[in-house]
Automatic annotation (TrEMBL), chain B:
NCBIfam families: T6A_YeaZ (TIGR03725)
Gene: tsaB
Gene Ontology molecular function terms on file: transferase activity
Protein name: tRNA (Adenosine(37)-N6)-threonylcarbamoyltransferase complex dimerization subunit type 1 TsaB
A Pfam family reported for this protein in Swiss-Prot or TrEMBL: TsaD
Taxonomic source organism: Thermoactinomyces daqus
GO CC terms, sorted: cytosol
Alphabetical list of InterPro entries matching this protein: ATPase_NBD (IPR043129), Gcp-like_dom (IPR000905), T6A_TsaB (IPR022496)
Keywords, comma-separated and alphabetical: Transferase
Domain named Gcp-like: residues: 33-230
Amino acid sequence: MNMQRETLILGIETSCDETSAAVVRGGTELLSNVISSQMDVHRKFGGVVPEVASRRHVERITIIVQKALEEAGVGRNELDAVAVTQGPGLVGALLIGVSAAKALAFSLGKPLVPVHHIAGHIYANHLIKPLSFPLVALVVSGGHTELIYMKGHNQFERLGKTRDDAAGEAFDKVARLMKLPYPGGPQIDRLALEGKPSYPLPRAWLESDSLDFSFSGLKSAVLNLVHNANQRKEEIHYADLAASFQDAVLDVLVEKAMLAVKKTGVNQLLLAGGVSANSGLRVRLSKRCKEEKIDLRIPPLELCTDNAAMIAAAGTYQFLDGHYADLTLNADANLPLIG
Amino acid sequence: MKLLAMDTSTLVMGVAVFDLETKRVLGEVITNLHNNHSVRLMPTIEQLLTELDLSLDDLHALAVTSGPGSYTGIRIGVTTAKTMAWARELPLYSESSLTVLAMNGIRFDGLVVPLFDARRRRVYSGVFAAKDGEMTEVLPQQVVPVESWLEQIKALEKPVLFLGDDVERFRQTIEEYLGERASFGIGPENLPRPSHLAWAAYQKWSNHEPPEHADFAPNYLQLTEAEANWLKKHGKEEGENG
């Protein structure tokens, strides 16, 4: 019997502001992926308010799980395991998913599989086309900027990470400075298309062979630029500023990713995380990978943001490896991927 | 036909199993620790069922406290209970954590005031009185500054029993307002008992009251700080129920 092909995993994801549940068969086949976004709720606060997010999660969680099974046409007793995002993320939000997953696993007598949020983002690509190892993943989101090396399923090695702000965080902060509505990342991306990268902004390359990132200097440079222009009563061309900022971020992301591929000698590069929805990044990375003949995988937009299908996909291989948690499982806001 | 009751609304974590036919409490676990309910709730449920030699198939109904109390704690209980209810297709009944604590004063001849500290000199509280073996509300449950609350209680001119571990923090103020009319729960009376929650749920079940739905949410008794501030700035048009 091909165990992997038959495996039915329910995934649950509540690490930030999306309540999501999904059913995945065989690690690759998406049967359902129900996402209840709270973006409208948080927009008026200019960002995700953790307590507001937790309140919304607890209200929605059971309905979303129910819907995921209904849409998949799978009975709860047919499931092989329940996979859940254990961390990292907002602890109060994570706790809703973890509590629900534990209660489900216990009630159904199924294994409970804890999944790292970033592992999930990487496996979003697996739902489109199976990963081919070894590979490098560039993970870019509001909370993460990391280069990960994978030799096989469940084997994660970190090549580099941000030393300060995550790329997505820099996007959000700069967007706020430019008084763009929440969420700021997509707004900068849109605005950048209308502008030219005419403002000189720094790129932090760090040590010559480093695969680490740093975005706080860039963020400060934008801050100073705006501040000085205001003092001199000069007008800022916001589309140009957005284009300049985006360019500075993408230069570093793309070139570090290429360096990581070269250093490890892999053929496949994955893009993962919320910032992989950025059109500039997608275009730029595609072009460079074509030049370098690297097999690039970019998840479709609906799998870039937080969703439970990616958790179920990653969870499948942990399930097959027998990596289960017991009922004492707790949410971990700072869960390390490699530990 | 057994009912499983769970309460994680405050520092107290309680799990009880109640027999719906014999109306007996079969088992009850209470801890009063500043410790993670998330880690301990499911194992405690599993262990109590095992010790009572019961399986999940023996359960006929579930009960949970809906708050008020610790936001995170309430959500752990509510999420666990309603997920179990959905997975096992069991009816879920909820009861206020204040009502459950007030049930410790069911034999008291006068007013019963359970309270939890809501910080900044405010309390989650309500005024109850026993009537026909049930606790009924004399003043509605609310989050309220302790001084104005005591003012209202004083006006009722009756003996008052205060319940809850947090009462000690306000004891001096309470005595200033109510003098000899105030009395205070002893240690065991200050812990909400999950068997009382089970009893309250049993009554709802036997009265054929409708159980909670899948979208059941806690009653925090107050908005989040972010929402309250937003409303202060933008007026009340988008207000939600506390």
